Each structure stands twice: as structure tokens, then as C-alpha cells.
């Protein structure tokens, strides 16, 4: 009995009981679809996190005043432990590639009759390099602009859109920030929202010196971005920065740090790890439904073997070996589970596309997860189909022929 | 009449039913030559079903030898018996035993599936077999769309399709009315006459046995009579004489 004939027989057997076959397959369909959707969600989330790591800039440390992650927001205005000089000192560390201080301040921006409340970020010329911010038009300000505390501004695309709604380029135009006149020298490319959902495009970048002199009036900075030369030296740089700042801030060994260093890569890795664990968890829950689906197949195959005892007897009488009967029922179980697997895969692919659209994630369809789902459903079919098929194959033809 | 197709030598069959041992066959010696048409008769419990199963290679004798075409098949393994059933034996059952979700030609082709025949050849051969039993045009009917007589003819076509050495019919008319029974017997007689088929019919109805040239009577697991039927009934002549029943199918 060749494979094609066996497949045809199996297919016909399934079509003979459409409703039952469908219900039997449902377990596998749900299982496979769930596995694919879960893996896709997990990988989409991971991909998004990874993308954000890359967007935030690689090998990045964020140094903030105050202690602890939670203290930052409240502490930004009150704890003034980081200064521009700290940033300059950190920049002289050998393993440090770039340093960019940050001062953030709410301002009202205006151009002509348009006004827009936004955040001004005072920073250094190396900020776009550290944070991977491409300039869409014009250019970013230079170290010279910083040294001279020049009245130049680089706009985020949201700000440009709000101040120049008729589509004219902002580059070369004059705007006011809290009634202070600035010349726009560049506009950044859109970035979208960053970690925490803040719109990174709704920002005006000016030299840090200008921000200090014209807006905050103090020497402190709110964040120092430190970029290490490479990923390997990141932890060393973190230790060196901590030691340097403790020295500069005259902290005794008993005193706690008056600054916090966030290793962005480490944070992202933690997030990515958590996502991975969640994915695994969800996928294993989905896998359980595959198992349940397999038991459903076994149940129906047992019913089918009993119902078709007479058919088995007839087939044996006309020359089917027990091997041929075993193959037939095994293939039937396999067709059932594989058909379920394919339908489940299609449902899973549709589902993950839908989820990725709804969540705004990149649609990641891992070929591995499809192979896994199909392979797993085939295995389920063979494993749970074997016992019923074996039962059919060992039937006594005489008794099977007599079966009513 | 040619060389013996079937040779049974001292065949016994004992069933172990719990503590009891049931001796269904007590020592059967039987020869059937090629081209014979034999009826095996006996009451229920006479062992005729057991004999039929052994002749059909569905069962093996407890002792004794069964030579089919001179080959001892009484000690073969189950898979070898399946092969013999596939190539040498065509079964016709009382209850037709067609597979319900398969069309007539697919039912006829069933033995060919296990003979490894190509689909094209399967189709051609089963159509030929269906033509021989007068069922051309019904190839694509399901068993439920056919009358009892037609279903049994499909079963006969299935028995013929592998060109077996013997056709074994177990109460082939048991589920049919008189006219249809005569029609089925007419087919057996025609195949026997025209193609020289060896036919063994197991029955408890003397009327049916009377269509065969030879009659073997079983009682309590032994052959008690083996006689030649001098004037076998001629099914085709009887059909011509019978008033038209359900019409020509």
C-alpha cells in the first residue's frame, strides 16, 4: 500500500466525518495558533526593546543626581550634585568615548503667531552621536556654539510642525524660547516615543551653556550621558565614573553616592530577559493545549477504530497486513493533527499580525516557531495516534468481520 | 478438471474456550480441483465456518496441512497469510461487507490497494470486474445507493479483481430474496463456466447447494458426505422462467 493511497484513504475517512474531524482538530488548531501567537508576541516585544536599546544609543550610562531610580524625578530640581565640571572630568576618562550633559526645562516656544509649550534640552554637541539622533535638516550645534553659549536651537520634528504648520522649513528661521530669540540651525529626524512613552520629538535642543545662563541660572546639570568606547568597557567605565564622582564630591567611604548611574544596556537586558521568560511561560501554557489536543485525537481515533472494526476486518480479508492497517490509522491521525497544525498556523499568523498591528510592534514571525508548531503537531499525531492504530492492527480479522 | 487447488490433510481446529476445549474440526481431508464448484453444507455448529476461515487463510489449523496450489499455507505467519488472501482468495460474504464511504469501483479496487497496483490500473481492473458482474454504469455509486443484489455483485467483483485461485462465498445469498439469490447464483455459475473459476460456497440452504456440481456435508467437525450433484440447478434458465421481479438491474 503506497503512501499516496494511504493518504487518500485517510483523507476520505476524515471527510466522512467533517464535524467530528473539525472538533478533533480544534484542540491542535488552538494549541498551534496559541504557540505561534505567544512566540510572536514575545519576539515582537523583544525586538521592540532591542530597537529601543539601539535608538537610545549603545554603551550608554546615564548619571543622575540623587540616589536611586525613584528619586530622580523628584530630585531633579532639588538635588544639585552634578555639574558641568563633573561632565568635563568624566570626559577625560580614557575609556569614555563621549559625554553629554543634559538640562531639561519647560519653555514656551513661539514663531510668528504660533506658540508651543515644549521642553528645552540643554546639551553638548556630542548628544546626537550618543543618542543616535539623525539630523534631518540643517545641522546640530557645534562644540564652539556650546563654548560661546550661542543662541542656536535644533528642533524636534513635533516642535517644527507646531511652530511652522504651513510646511516651511524651520532651518534659518528665528524662534523665541521664553521670549529669548534663537536661530534654528537644524531639525532632527522623527524618533517616536521613547521608554516610558514620552515624545522625544517634542524637544528643542540648545547648547547646555546657553540653557544654564539663560534658563536655569545654575551650574548643575540634570543628567550626564556617558558613552563608553565599547560594550566590554561599559562596566569599567561605570566603576571609574562612580569613583571619580565620589572623589570630586568629597564623599567619605561611609557616605552613600549622591548620584545614580544607570547602565542602560543592563536595564534593557533585564527587560529583554523578563520578556523572554514571559514568552516561555506563555508558550508552555499554549503547549499544554497542544497536549490536550493530542488526547482529543487519541480519543477520536479510538472511537473511529471501534466504529470501523468491520472495515478493518474487510481490509484484512482482502489482504491488508497489520502493518498496512497500522499505517492507515497512523496516517489518519497524522493527517488530522497536521491539518489542525496548518489551520492553527494560519490562525496563528493572522493572530500575531493582528496583535502586532494593535500593539504597534514589529511583526516578528519566526520560521522556527512555525516549524516547531508543525513538527509538534505531527509528533502529537504520531504519539497519540499510535495506540489506536496499534489496536486496529492487532484486530483478529475473523472477529472483526463478525463485529456488528 | 485440473490439478488440486485445495488439499486439506487431517485438518483439525481446536479452540481453547476457558477450561473447555472446543473441537471445531476433527480431521478434514478434502481436495478441490481447479475449476470445481463445490458447496459445503452443514448445520450451525458443524464447523463449516471454521473450515471456511481456514480455507480463506483467515485462520490456521491446529494440526494437519493445508496445501493451496501445492504450497503449505498452514504454518505461515500472519503477514504471509495476508499476502495469500490478497493474491489467491476472493471472499464473498453474506452481509456483502462493502465499505460504506467508498464507491462501487473503490470497493472493488480494495484488494488492489494492498497488491501495490497503480491507481490507473486499479481503475481499469475494477471496471472490468464490475462489467463481468453486469454493473457497468454503477461504478460511482455508494453501497447505500445500490440494491442488495447489486451490492453482492460489487462484492463478487471485488473477489474477482485480483484473479484469485479460489472464490470463497460464505452464505452469499443469505441476505437476499429468492429472485436476487438466483441472479447471484447465475453470476457464480457463469464465472465458473466461462472463466473456469474455482468456487467454494458455504451454505446451510440445500436450494443454494443444488446449484453446485459437488456437495460436501459437514457434521460435528467431520465430512459425512461428499457427493456429485447429478443435475445441478441452472440459475440462468430459472431466471428466464421467473416472472420479472425488480427488473433488470
From TrEMBL, chain A:
One of its GO terms (molecular function) is ATP binding. It is an enzyme of class 3 (hydrolase). InterPro entries: ABC3_permease_C, MacB_PCD, Macrolide_Exporter_MacB. This is Macrolide export ATP-binding/permease protein MacB. One of its GO terms (cellular component) is plasma membrane. Residues 21-243 form the MacB-like periplasmic core domain. The chain crosses the membrane at residues 21-42, 280-303, 324-349, 361-387. Residues 284-397 form the ABC3 transporter permease C-terminal domain. It comes from Moorella mulderi DSM 14980. It is found in: Cell membrane. Its EC number is 3.6.3.-. Keywords: ATP-binding, Cell membrane, Hydrolase, Membrane, Nucleotide-binding, Transmembrane, Transmembrane helix. Belongs to the ABC-4 integral membrane protein family. It is a multi-pass membrane protein. Its main location: membrane.
From TrEMBL, chain B:
One of its GO terms (cellular component) is membrane protein complex. The keyword Chloroplast does not apply. InterPro entries: AAA+_ATPase, ABC_transporter-like_ATP-bd, ABC_transporter-like_CS, ABC_transpr_LolD-like, MacB-like_ATP-bd, P-loop_NTPase. One of its GO terms (molecular function) is ATP binding. Its EC number is 3.6.3.-. SUPFAM superfamilies: P-loop containing nucleoside triphosphate hydrolases. Keywords: ATP-binding, Hydrolase, Nucleotide-binding, Transport. Residues 6-245 form the ABC transporter domain. It holds the Pfam family ABC_tran. This is Macrolide export ATP-binding/permease protein MacB.
Amino acid at each position: 500500500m503506497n503512501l499516496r493511497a494511504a493518504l487518500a484513504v485517510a483523507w476520505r475517512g476524515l471527510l466522512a466525518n467533517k464535524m467530528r474531524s473539525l472538533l478533533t482538530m480544534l484542540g491542535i488548531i488552538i494549541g498551534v495558533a496559541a504557540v505561534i501567537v505567544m512566540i510572536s508576541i514575545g519576539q515582537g516585544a523583544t525586538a521592540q526593546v532591542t530597537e529601543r536599546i539601539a535608538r537610545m544609543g549603545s554603551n550608554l550610562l546615564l548619571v543622575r543626581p540623587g540616589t536611586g531610580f525613584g528619586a530622580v524625578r523628584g530630585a531633579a530640581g532639588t538635588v544639585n550634585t552634578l555639574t558641568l565640571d563633573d561632565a568635563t572630568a568624566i570626559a577625560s576618562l580614557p575609556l569614555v568615548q563621549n559625554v553629554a550633559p543634559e538640562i531639561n526645562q519647560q519653555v514656551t516656544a513661539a514663531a510668528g503667531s504660533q506658540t508651543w509649550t515644549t521642553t528645552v534640552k540643554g546639551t553638548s554637541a556630542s548628544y546626537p552621536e550618543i543618542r543616535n539622533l539623525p539630523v534631518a535638516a540643517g545641522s546640530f550645534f557645534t562644540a564652539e556654539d556650546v563654548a560661546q553659549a550661542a543662541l542656536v536651537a535644533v528642533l524636534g520634528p513635533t516642535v517644527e510642525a507646531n511652530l511652522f504648520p504651513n510646511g516651511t522649513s524651520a532651518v534659518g528661521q528665528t524662534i523665541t524660547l521664553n521670549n529669548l530669540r534663537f536661530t534654528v540651525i537644524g531639525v532632527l529626524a522623527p524618533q517616536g516615543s521613547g521608554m516610558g512613552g514620552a515624545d522625544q520629538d517634542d524637544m528643542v535642543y540648545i547648547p547646555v551653556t546657553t540653557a544654564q545662563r539663560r534658563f536655569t541660572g545654575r551650574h548643575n546639570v540634570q543628567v550626564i550621558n556617558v558613552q563608553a568606547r565599547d560594550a566590554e568597557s561599559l562596566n569599567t567605565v561605570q566603576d571609574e565614573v562612580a569613583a571619580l564622582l565620589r572623589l570630586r564630591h568629597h564623599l567619605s567611604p561611609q557616605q552613600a553616592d549622591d548620584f545614580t548611574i544607570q547602565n542602560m544596556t543592563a536595564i534593557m537586558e533585564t527587560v529583554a530577559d523578563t520578556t523572554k521568560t514571559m514568552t516561555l511561560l506563555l508558550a508552555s501554557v499554549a503547549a499544554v493545549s497542544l497536549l490536550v489536543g493530542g488526547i482529543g485525537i487519541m480519543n477520536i481515533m479510538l472511537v473511529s477504530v471501534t466504529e470501523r472494526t468491520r472495515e478493518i476486518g474487510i481490509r484484512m480479508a482482502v489482504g491488508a497486513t497489520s502493518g498496512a492497517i497500522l499505517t492507515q490509522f497512523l496516517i489518519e491521525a497524522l493527517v488530522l493533527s497536521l491539518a489542525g497544525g496548518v489551520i492553527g498556523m494560519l490562525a496563528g499568523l493572522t493572530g500575531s499580525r493582528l496583535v502586532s498591528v494593535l500593539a504597534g510592534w514589529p511583526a516578528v514571525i519566526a520560521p522556527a516557531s512555525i516549524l516547531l508548531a508543525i513538527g509538534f503537531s505531527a509528533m502529537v499525531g504520531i504519539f497519540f495516534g499510535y495506540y489506536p492504530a496499534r489496536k486496529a492492527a492487532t484486530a483478529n480479522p475473523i472477529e472483526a468481520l463478525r463485529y456488528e | 478438471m485440473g490439478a488440486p487447488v485445495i488439499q486439506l490433510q487431517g485438518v483439525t481446529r481446536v479452540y481453547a474456550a476457558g477450561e473447555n476445549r472446543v473441537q471445531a474440526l476433527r480431521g478434514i481431508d478434502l481436495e478441490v480441483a481447479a475449476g470445481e464448484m463445490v458447496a459445503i453444507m452443514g448445520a450451525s455448529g458443524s464447523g463449516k465456518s471454521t473450515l471456511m476461515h481456514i480455507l480463506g487463510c483467515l485462520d490456521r489449523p491446529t494440526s494437519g496441512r493445508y496445501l493451496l496450489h501445492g504450497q503449505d499455507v498452514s504454518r505461515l505467519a500472519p503477514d504471509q497469510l495476508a499476502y495469500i488472501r490478497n493474491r489467491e482468495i476472493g471472499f464473498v460474504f453474506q452481509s456483502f461487507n462493502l465499505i460504506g464511504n467508498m464507491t462501487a469501483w473503490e470497493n472493488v479496487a480494495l484488494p488492489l490497494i494492498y497488491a501495490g497496483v497503480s491507481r490507473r490500473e486499479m481503475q481499469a481492473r475494477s471496471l472490468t470486474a464490475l462489467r463481468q458482474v453486469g454493473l457497468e454504469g454503477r461504478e460511482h455509486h455508494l453501497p447505500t445507493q445500490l440494491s442488495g443484489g447489486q451490492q453482492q455483485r460489487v462484492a463478487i467483483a471485488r473477489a474477482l479483481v485480483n484473479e484469485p485461485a479460489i472464490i470463497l462465498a460464505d452464505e452469499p445469498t443469505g441476505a437476499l430474496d429468492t429472485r436476487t439469490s438466483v441472479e447471484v447464483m447465475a453470476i457464480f455459475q457463469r464465472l465458473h463456466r466461462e472463466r473456469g473459476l474455482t468456487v467454494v460456497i458455504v451454505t446451510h440452504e440445500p436450494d443454494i447447494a443444488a446449484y453446485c456440481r459437488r456437495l460436501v456435508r459437514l457434521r460435528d467437525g467431520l465430512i459425512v458426505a461428499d457427493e456429485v450433484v447429478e443435475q445441478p440447478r441452472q440459475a440462468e434458465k430459472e431466471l428466464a422462467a421467473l416472472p420479472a421481479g425488480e427488473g433488470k438491474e
